[in-house]
Every structure is written in structure tokens, then in C-alpha cells.
Design brief:
11 strands; 2 domains; ph1033 like fold; 34% helix; elongated; 6 helices; 279 residues; alpha+beta; five-stranded antiparallel beta sheet
Length: 279
């Protein structure tokens, strides 16, 4: 606001005239001496404009600036709080000893396919050999930052047709070494079941690759295998792109955001999938 030549009254120095002004300072001539004041702060404490209309206009500007200042201060405090939480999260994840492949993919038989999306828990199977034969198969890397990817194929289909049926985050209180059985419970919120049509477009081998044998597309034996964290993020990103229902898109977006957050992944820089089918 241009205040040049406006007449003012100062609590101590009396009447004066504004002779210079910039964004942060005004200069006032009190006839026998010149004084500089912080603008607009001085108008809240020591100075008032003698013209009533100009004074009202300035007070509106000051009020708006105060609102902006308070909003900025709140934003700074929010950022500080988020930074503190982020630091706490990073320390917690260090304690969890996050592995780059701390997700698992499960192969489900027909009975399990019927139950998993009702019970929202899946089995990692039992130990098949050795002294622990018959004991729960505890998956060492499976922690609250892990997701369980659920897959299956028909018995008459080749392995290349293995479909992704859905996935869920592990329950946030779950730790494999503390579990009493082989069942892995799902997080209360972050869980996705794909439709048959969606699953047909989400082939497991578009994401998974055996790094030692990139051309090999075989599951062989075993109930589960480890899965890279970034591959899970790629799957969630593709599910978002595949869906058309706004509510279901939001569901997948929230899942991806949480997953990237807890696994320290950059949600905006997820590379394109390069699974064995893409080699």
C-alpha cells in the first residue's frame, strides 16, 4: 500500500509525514528530525494514520498479513513435527532391520483361495524336512513392514499364467519369531482383493525375476518365496492404473502410500516392472 506523504501521529514524536517507504521500512519526517520504523509493525504499536479511510485500509492489510504470518508459523511447526516423527520412524525401522526383500509371495491352493479373503490370514506352511519337520514355517524377514502377495494358477495352466489375486500388509503387531503358528494375519486396513478380471491382467511373472536365472519361470516346491519391496510397490501402482472405481482407486493409493512410507520408498519414483516376462 502506498503511504507516501500520508500524515501520521506517533505516540512520542507527534505528527509527521511519511517521506519514504519500502516493503519493510517507512521513513517519517517529524519536521526537525527523520525516523525510520519497521513496516507494517509500527502501525500496530506506535503510529496511526490520521486519514481514517487510509487507516482502515491499512488495518485490513495488516490483519491479512497477520493471518498469513500465523499460517506460516503453523506450517513451520507442522513441518518440524513431521520431521520429528520421520526421525522416530527411521529409528524404528532401523531396529526392525528392514531387508530389501522383506515381502513374501504365497502360492494358494483352491481351498485357501476360498478362505483367505474371508479370514484375511494366510499360511506360510510347515517345515517339510529336518529336525523341525512339522513345525510352523516361520519367515524370518516377515515384519510389520511386510506385505503378503497372494497368487495362484490353475493346475492345467503353465507357470507363466500365475495370477495375483490380492495382497495385504501384515498386521502391525505381527512378528514372525513371536507367532505360535504359520498363519500370517492381515492389517485391519491395508488389504486388497482383485476381481477375476483384474487378476487376469496382473500376472505374477511380470514383476518377479530370479536374479540368478532371469529367464527361469518356475515355482518349484515351497509355499512361499521372498519378494522385493520395490516389486510390491510396482504392483500397487499398476493396480491403481487398472482400476476405474474411484473408491477402489483411493483404497489402492492409500495402500501404496502407507507401503512406501513404512519401507522408505519414494512413491513418486517407482521404476517400471521388469519381471521375467519382460526380460
Amino acid at each position: 500500500m502506498n503511504l507516501l506523504n500520508e500524515e501520521i501521529t506517533h505516540k512520542v514524536f507527534g505528527i509527521g509525514s511519511i517521506v519514504d517507504q519500502n516493503e519493510s521500512v517507512i521513513t517519517i519526517d517529524f519536521n526537525d528530525h527523520i525516523k525510520k520504523f519497521v513496516y507494517p509493525d509500527a502501525f500496530e504499536k506506535f503510529i496511526k494514520l490520521n486519514d481514517r479511510n487510509t487507516s482502515k485500509s491499512l488495518q485490513k492489510i495488516i490483519a491479512n498479513e497477520e493471518i498469513k504470518k500465523e499460517a506460516l508459523e503453523r506450517k513451520v511447526e507442522e513441518v518440524k513435527a513431521l520431521q520429528a516423527l520421520e526421525q522416530q520412524r527411521r529409528e524404528k525401522l532401523k531396529n526392525l532391520k528392514i531387508h530389501e526383500s522383506s515381502q513374501i509371495v504365497l502360492s494358494l491352493d483352491e481351498e485357501e483361495q476360498q478362505k483367505v479373503f474371508t479370514d484375511w490370514r494366510a499360511s506360510t506352511g510347515k517345515v517339510q524336512n529336518g529336525k523341525n519337520k512339522g513345525q510352523p514355517n516361520r519367515v524370518a524377514r516377515l515384519l510389520p513392514n511386510s506385505a503378503c502377495l497372494l497368487t495362484a494358477r490353475e493346475s492345467n495352466q503353465p507357470e507363466t499364467e500365475r495370477r495375483i489375486l490380492g495382497l495385504y500388509m501384515v498386521n502391525e503387531t505381527f512378528f514372525s519369531d513371536l507367532s505360535h503358528d504359520e498363519m500370517v494375519p492381515a492389517h485391519m486396513e491395508f488389504r486388497i482383493k482383485l476381481t477375476d478380471q483384474e487378476a487376469a491382467n496382473m500376472l505374477f511373472w511380470n514383476y518377479y525375476v530370479n536374479k540368478n536365472f532371469p529367464q527361469r519361470l518356475t515355482w518349484n516346491s515351497g509355499k512361499y518365496r521372498y519378494f522385493d519391496n520395490i516389486w510390491t510397490a510396482q504392483i500397487l501402482k499398476d493396480i491403481i492404473a487398472l482400476r476405474t472405481d474411484e473408491e477402489e482407486i483411493e483404497e489402492a493409493k492409500n495402500f501404496l502410500e502407507y507401503f512406501c512410507h513404512i519401507n522408505l520408498l519414494d512413491m513418486d519414483n517407482i521404476p517400471k516392472a521388469q519381471g521375467a516376462l519382460n526380460q
